[in-house]
Amino acid sequence: MHGRIRNSDPLALESEAVHAGRDDLTALGVHAPPLDLSTTYPLHDLQAGVDSLDGFADGAASAPSPVYARLHNPTVARFEAGLARLEGAAEAVAFGSGMAALTAALLAARQRGGHVVACRPLYGTSDHLLASGLLGLEVTWCSPEEVGDARRADTSLVIVETPGNPTLELVDLEAVVRRAGPVPVLVDSTFATPVLQRPLEHGAALVLHSATKFLGGHGDVIAGVVACGPEHGRQLRQVRLMTGALLHPLGAYLLHRGLPTLPSRVRTAQEGACHLAVRLAGHPAVGRVLYPGLPGGDPLNLVGRQMRGPGAVLAFEVAGGFEAASRVMREVRLMTPAVSLGSVDTLIQHPAGLTHRVVDAEARRQSGISAGLLRVSVGLEDPEDLWRDLEGALGAPGSAAGIDVRQTATALR
Ligand SMILES: *Cc1c(COP(=O)(O)O)cnc(C)c1O
Question: Is 188 noted as a catalytic residue in this protein?
């Protein structure tokens, strides 16, 4: 295609990641986005203040004046614009954490109807929030196949997470959207990032991220964001305004700063994960390795169709249960034994004892979250250094005989 690039032209994800949310910088005469920490804004024009307040109360994304920082912040709005572009969404609404984002989505749903359908496994605290009844919503838990049967007249939201945490199961989004019929589907796409998966293209209405993870990427911001269409965006902003579940502008600044490197970070980490998954699968002290990039890890063939790659998180079972898993957590030297994921450094954690401790024990067992299961979020270190670290922590010599690691990793580039 010939001709000059116009502002409205769709760009490749890598280009959007670098430039999205920066449209106003030229007019401002700056190169880096400004960090606006104001809590209030001068209103010499009272009528403009009145109009702005009315607009924000109605859920508007912008107005002549921000009025007050709980209503609007330009630094946050730039990150939202950037993330919306990456997800192919009309809008994005940022929150002070992933859980604040989910809470807002549930409160908005509650105004439409008192019942939600949720598929396990979900992130531990998402599961806990829904199961607690705190928000007064009735929840039907079901498998992705059962969503159609679970749906009722007052169902206001279907919630799925893919890849699932911590078992890395993939959910067929188009099938779930079909079964959900008119009910909006919310997808927690934290593990995939828009680099590997864009749920709106598969019919989802809302995409949720714990931006604390890959989007932030450096382990220094807690944040959440929902990408969606204008009507959901309006409802989410109304909830945010009333509940005050704001993202601090410094967090938004750091998140926006990290977007340009997101595609590179995710791909490099994914290569490392492929490498480790293959190595782990050949180790005698390791049982199941859960990773969509391994044979049998993607029974619905969604990598390629729904996901652009198997991702940078994997889980594996060590023989010897809790004791053996504790030993690995104690013995790693390069990896950080800590919850969370999506950081530049590799994190290893024990779902049954930590992230999924709050999940009902029977539900945990049914989801395959055993005492010997460890989850690894692969970072940007050299994969062979990571393997040496893990092999040392496992305590017995491994063997990846018969599997060409290099070939597997490059095939996935
Ligand atoms: C971490 C996480 C959350 C919660 O996000 P916070 O930012 O910790 O509140 C939700 N879903 C998934 C998949 C997560 O990994």
Answer: yes
Over residues 156-194, the pLDDT tens digits come to 999 999 999 889 999 999 999 999 999 999 999 999 999
Please work out whether the CB of residue 66 comes within 6 Å of at least one atom of ligand 1. Answer: no
Q: Which is catalytic among the residues 22, 85, 120, 123?
A: 123
- In the chain, where the domains are located: 13-261, 262-411
Contact between 303 and 197 (Cβ < 8 Å): no
Is residue 291 annotated as part of the catalytic site, yes or no? no
**C-beta separation of 156 from 182 below 8 A:** no
Catalytic pick from 22, 198, 213, 267?
213
Distance CA(67)–CA(73), nearest Å, equals 9
Regarding the domain delimited by 13-261, which CATH topology (the fold level of the hierarchy) does it fall under? Aspartate Aminotransferase; domain 2 (3.40.640)
Res 396: pLDDT: 53
Whether 413 shows a pLDDT value over 50: the answer reads no
pLDDT at 2: 63
CATH number of 262-411: 3.90.1150.10
Q: Is 123 a catalytic residue?
A: yes
Each residue of 340-382: pLDDT tens digit?
999 999 999 999 999 888 888 888 888 889 999 999 999 999 9
DSSP-derived 3-state class of residue 43 = coil
Cβ of 319: how many Cβ atoms within 10 Å? 13
The SS3 call for residue 78 is: helix
The tokens for 398 are 């491994």
